[in-house]
Amino acid sequence: MRLTLKMKELSSAEVRSLFLRFFESKGHKIEPSQSLIPQNDPTLLWINSGVATLKKYFDGSVVPENHRITNAQKSIRTNDIENVGHTARHHTLFEMMGNFSIGDYFKEEAIPWAWELLTSPEWFGMDPDKLYVTVYPNDDQAKDIWLHKVGLPKDHLYEEPDNFWDIGEGPSGPDSEIFYDRGEEFNDPDEAENYPGGENERYLEIWNLVFSQFNHLPGLTDNKDYPELPTKNIDTGMGLERVVSVFQHAKTNFETDLFLPLIHKTEDISGQFKYGEDDTKDISFKVIADHIRAVTFAIGDGALPSNEGRGYIIRRLLRRAVLHGRKLGISQVFLKDLVPVVGEIMISYYPEIAKNADYIASIVEAEEIRFNKTLTDGLSLLDDVIEQAKSKKGIIDGAIAFKLYDTYGFPYELTEEYATDEGLKVDRDGFDEQMKAQQERARSARSNKASMGVQNELLTGLKTPSQYVGWSELTVEQTELVNLIVDNKLVEEANAGQVQAIFAKTPFYAEMGGQVADLGMIYDESGQAVAKVTDVQNAPNGQHLHTLSIIAPLFVGKQYKLDVDRPYHVAVSKNHTATHLLDQTLRNVLGEHTTQAGSLVTAEGLRYDFTYNGAVPSEKLQEVEDIINQKIIDNLPISWIETDIESAKKLGAVAVFTEKYGEKVRVVSIGDYNAEFDGGTHANSTAELGMFKIVGEQGTGAGVRRIEAVTGSGAMALFKLHDSWLAKAAEQVKAPQLSEINDKISGLQTALKEAERQAASLEQKLANQEADAAFANPQKINNYTLIATEMAVESMDVLRSTADTWKQSTPSDVLVLAANLGDKVNLLVAVAPEAVKKGIKAGDLVKSIAPAIGGGGGGRPDMAQAGGKNPAGIADAFKQAADWLQEK
């Protein structure tokens, strides 16, 4: 009989640390948690799992330096936001801890290590009797390891047909899920699935081990037909929030040190309710705690509230939290006060949240103030909707409920709650239909590219060494051609077309970090040009893979001269240096929270994306440009060293968003102004840039701005273009000197305004004359009088002015004016006060006659207007107006 082991009591920080240190002891490299905003992955809106940042290793496009990796990765999933707070373990933001093998160890190591971490007193020290495992029925190898190598009792092993991880084309395989038995007190007698792997509260899944051993190839639908992967992998996931709830004996994830400080702070702000006293109020406490965590981390990583994409998710989460605050009696702005609490909770692993708490809180506060204004409008609309629904079979239309949700941030359940209070129902099917349509729009907006690529066995298997020397050499006089690839096959020679090639040594820069690849030529030993280099990419094992356009036959094993296109290379290098200057200067001018979100460096110029809330003011852009040009004038030296990561950080080097770095890193310094981790090529000094000029600044998405700029000859070409425009303008305004252009333009503007004033005055006089004639002859229609006339005017303003004149004496009950503007028509209808009282409404009349001019319109009972594109219909519109009055 086994003794029951007393469960360790561990903080969330201790759990995370133990997990990472355990796998570090097994030779794994600890990868830091990456940004929630995916980089170079259009298939994801957010990083949604521990493996999401490692996909390039799993699909073989990159071979890591260390094939054993472990991480604790912050993640966001928002496909079931409505479940948050209603269940024990649904979250929008969560941390996924995992260990990964990229073609190294497999099940024989992964399963025993998992058991060791969970049960060893040195590590988690869980009671083995409380652990259960599920396996894929056909995975005999995993079953054997669990039963005979680990010693798991047979009655603790369950076969589960769903234990096969497959997300489409690419790596897939069986998995083993590990469950913790929380005890009989969590049994539900009404629960039919009260067993490990079933839907129940007793057996809590704490870890999933995925054995990525098959390749889901295009066209295959049955996993029995999937071929074995050339490189098998391990991918595991342990939710931090779940396992912490075990160590802290929590009924749900929310009663842990990850959430309770937020809940207690919300209690203090509310002053009316306490967590644990009312199930309905508890839901609101949980929603607020969950959502502010997600919002804080998302904004901390550069996402900002908006009406699209990630920004829409942030806005939606904030608004749900505010509404649940209202349910707790919180009417003031309060979410900003929770941001520092998130920072305190997560400070051991995410110190940047506490560091940037003031900035994050300011964004949250501004959004909450904005929503409070919207909320007032939404509540007013909801009141109107309820009144209308009372006269329509007591049902609120689903499309209207969705508008409240989508535009005003009202969750469906809130609208339903208000409706129930009034004895009404909400059309849930109609709401779901609108929601589905929105989700389809969101899906279509994202890339259809496969989530994870299919491994390329040839490139992954190429281990031949290749040395890059392009930081200091642009010509390699002699080097061996070691690999030739044609149609994904190794060949010994190639005579025509395009091929891929790897050389023992190369001066050609491979495209990376936003910098385009070098171009150039390949020569044989006699000096004859044999190939043109059109592109260079990194192969999975780091070699520079050249795309060549063949001029003369190439042979593996022969020696060749490699020569980079110098002017092209120098132009690209200058623009790359400019991006470093721009990155540093933007942070100095706009704030440290401004971070790089992407870049493109070419010979023609540079494109730099960065996080910022709103357009950059023109004076700030000018300040940025002036500072950079001063650094160019200062002729700062540019140098680089290769060192380890920690030493680089001590030098103050900045790591660029989510780039991954090896054990050794290259640090590029621009004087004492800027130091960054960087593998690209640069100028030798800032003076070589010559000049820096911003071409434009614009938004590219939620919270992301883009600056385009040029340097050197590109800047000179731009100034020449501007000079030519100025010269042409001077000629047109007859300015003898460029310095006189502004005075000349100002004089022309004054003259134009005076001419426009005189023209408008003359037009009004003519209109008044026409009106006097028309006002003298109203038509008698039934019990009303009508004046309908076409006026030779150029704008709706003159029609309104004529209507104002008509109002002073009201020579008719109804006035209909039309202006023929050539390709379009303006209509105006006015109705006298007495006629309005009798039911004659201008808005109704204009809607009735507008189709005659091919348009539509509307307005108030006393005045309305319309526009159309059929001038020939004016007479018909007048006739229809008379007919409309005749019927009254």
Automatic annotation (TrEMBL):
Residues 10-721 form the Alanyl-transfer RNA synthetases family profile domain. One of its GO terms (biological process) is alanyl-tRNA aminoacylation. PANTHER family: ALANINE--TRNA LIGASE, CYTOPLASMIC, ALANYL-TRNA SYNTHETASE. Pfam families: DHHA1, tRNA-synt_2c, tRNA_SAD. SUPFAM superfamilies: Class II aaRS and biotin synthetases, Putative anticodon-binding domain of alanyl-tRNA synthetase (AlaRS), ThrRS/AlaRS common domain, Translation proteins. Its EC number is 6.1.1.7. It comes from the Bacteria. Keywords: Aminoacyl-tRNA synthetase, ATP-binding, Coiled coil, Cytoplasm, Ligase, Nucleotide-binding, Protein biosynthesis, RNA-binding, tRNA-binding. This is Alanine--tRNA ligase. It comes from Weissella paramesenteroides ATCC 33313.
